[in-house]
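Give me structure tokens for this 372-residue protein.
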Amino acid sequence: MKETPLRDDPPEEAERPSIKPPEGSEAILPEPGTLFESNPVSLDVLGELKNQSILEAGQFTFDQVTELCKLAAVLEKLEIWPYHPLDGKIAVTAFFEASTRTRTSFESAILRLDGKVISIADGSTTGQAKGESLADIGEMFNAYADCVIMRHTETAAPEEMLQNLRIPLINAGNGSGEHPTQALADWFALLKWKPALAAPCVNDSEKMNLGILGTPGSMRAVKSFLLMALLFQDHIRKVTVISEMADPFGEDVIQCLTDANIDYEVSNDVREHLPDLDVIYMNSIAFLGDSYKNMDSRFKLNSESPIKESAVILHPMARLGELDTSLDKTPHNLYFSQAHGAVFIRQALLLAVLDRLGPLENMINLESNKNS
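Here you go.
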């Protein structure tokens, strides 16, 4: 499809109204400008993602993740709609598995960039319900859109779709496999909270103890978060995985941890480790083939848990009883900021994958330098 130019004479730049925490809340909603105000976005690095399918967290480089987060911070700060950067582009959101946040945040991201959406919110309405293969569906999508954003219950679904798909595919969750754009949202929240993470390395005294409550082998969001954490290995002192399973990883994750030379520990005692953790990442459910398993009640956190005073909590939502609402208004709550930022990091990814960064170059550079 021929690229459509931006419409003429966009209005004068305007800041987006910031999202405020609930009244009386100490929840953390970091200022996005700290990520780019003295560190302009590198469009050359983001250009490496042009026309790429996004399938797993490990396919990104450190620079690509940090530049996506910086661009997302610009997008969170500015009203982007006057520039119409995705005008003429169409995305299919094909969700063969139930979703609230991921599907609607992707669709919001596309619409706010003035792109168009073909939304499949229920896989039972597609030809797959009649036995059609994902490969054949992918062949049809080539004629309908410029990219496909897919969630599926089957871990092998992206591979099958890509047999015939020749436009970019963005994996929005595949069975017990991965959820790479959730990991981008997770690390976007962390980079806004601690902008020093965008630097290649830090002093030993500034390194983090990272805690994961869950099972990376069967929790795709947890797995992608951990695999993306390996890109930030120079910022991490130790990873502690707290799980009811003796071996919560799976062979592929163990190999990645070994290759990255990350110090890690597995435990089933939450209270023993909480006082030492700087970041706590938790999830509620594991996907086991064709059903969900809730996280064990022993891992529940509330405002009385012995959490380090400066520690923050991340959770990809939806939550169940493991993350008590008593933490919502405390300074440990980074999970609301994590959820709010998902639209902007997905906007940044879409602009890079669909090659619509060029028309925004002057706007991005102006904003990046204006605050320096």
